[in-house]
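Handout, tutorial session.
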Amino acid sequence: MDLGIAGRKAIICGASKGLGKGCAMAMAGEGAQVFLVARTASDLEAAKKEISGQTGAQVEIVVADVTSDSGRDKIMAACPRPDILVNNAGGPPPGDFRDWRQKEWFDAVNGNMFSAIDMIRRTVDGMVERGFGRIVNITSISVKTPMPGLGLSNGARAGLTGWVAGIAREFVRHNVTINNLLPGLFDTGRGSGYLAYRARCEGVDADSYLTDYFARTPAGRFGTSDEFGATCAFICSDKAGYMSGQNILLDGGEYAGTF
């Protein structure tokens, strides 16, 4: 299937590794010009080499912190007219809510709610003017089923979800969609790190905990970054113009709810 995004300019945040890199790889494979955003230059250079080598696509890097205003300025200077925006920022650390004060909460809301909102503010009107736009916010399964120990992430990402539910309906008639992609546990540092944290909380060996955990889940494994990237690329395609304001779970069937 031709996704119709060849030549489109795509800003991919958190793209030097993990899920963001998977999204960049998939869109580059479809011929999009991808702008990889992350904080560490060496990781970005490695990702650029890998993605351009495998796809032959034009790949640009932007060394910037998307959770800072100056970082977002730098991203927009590098790609002022994006067709596609993938919002993605590292999640806050797990812990006990009794230990979190204002700083921890403000950092979480800034990283996992406000930074995405501000990137949408900076890009959506231009997409409307050009008659095409795809915005995907990488959030978490925790929006649907809060995860123990991830209270900062649960709260901040739920706030972004509520905001998107209102704003997405304003732009879809202009062929600009805004959706949220909710990953479960994937083969990333974040995914394995969370299971290691749960093992420590329960006082058991991490490898044993992982084996027992996947024995209880429908898919019985981590998701792959390639699977995630392919899903994101479809949501960003010209085939998905009738999908907006949705929360799309990609979790191997782990969420057990009907709705």
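The second record follows below. Compare its token runs with those of the first.
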Amino acid sequence: MAKSTPFGARSTADKVLAGVDLTGKRIVVTGCSSGIGFETMSALSANGAHVIGLARSLRDAKIACDKVGPSSTPVACDLADLDSVAAASDAIRALQGPLDAVVANAGIANLPTLQTRYGVEMQFLVNHIGHFALVNELSGLVRDGTGRIVIVSSSASINQAPAEGIMFDNLDGQRFYKPFMFYGQSKLANALFAKELSRRLSARGITVNSLHPGATRGTRLNKNASLPLKIALSAAQLFMRSAPRGAATQALLAANPSVSGITGEFWSNCQIAKGSALLQDPDLAKRLWDVSEDIVARQSASPAKSLREAA
């Protein structure tokens, strides 16, 4: 397997897909309405793929897909609402066709105050649990042998996550809450999920990788951050990469033939990179999987959900 690509930090999504014919390919992209999600969808569509664009509301998804053109389908998917995730999965299955790739791109960051739902902190819910539920619902549609799943993580998985990796005894933040640490935890969860999913799907020949897209301007990732942090980030944007460059690594992993067969890796700047040391802990990845599965299952079996379905 190739261990390097001809691309790097200055590559754009269009550059990594230049000359790649994606006609007939069907690819799901979450967080399609802005930033690197929109740039990823645009680049894939421009090369012939039909992109199923997911955003928090159908209106946002439609606006983004209208900009891309007819080779796209909008779907509403609020990752903070597991019922919405289930509905989005049903809508994608109703389109009746296999998927060539799923790009789990959407996310939130650094919420200044603790917010919880389903008994877990909101960043962990949106960034990890929502995608965990969605990807597992869609994995059966991904083509055997050539299918790809791309999970967007962050360098925060390395330098902001708690020392133990996942605070299983504090997933609700009730013991203590630190915005940056909980963001780092959610991003480490993304990478651990990719690692474990790559193991589980290896027999089907589906590749699963995670990545750090790089600090990118023009995203809405920190829209809920505190005012002082927003001011600091506004100044820092002068030194951040553009959205087309930020989207390059995930576009590469979703569709470039040069990375076919590479799985279970953490990427940055279009190259395999050194992720958190905790990614080498299979027991941690398996425990996270089991806990995540329990959270999703509890919501699926909740009395409130059963009553809504019966209504």
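Points raised in discussion: Residues 31 and 37 are 5 Å apart (CA to CA).
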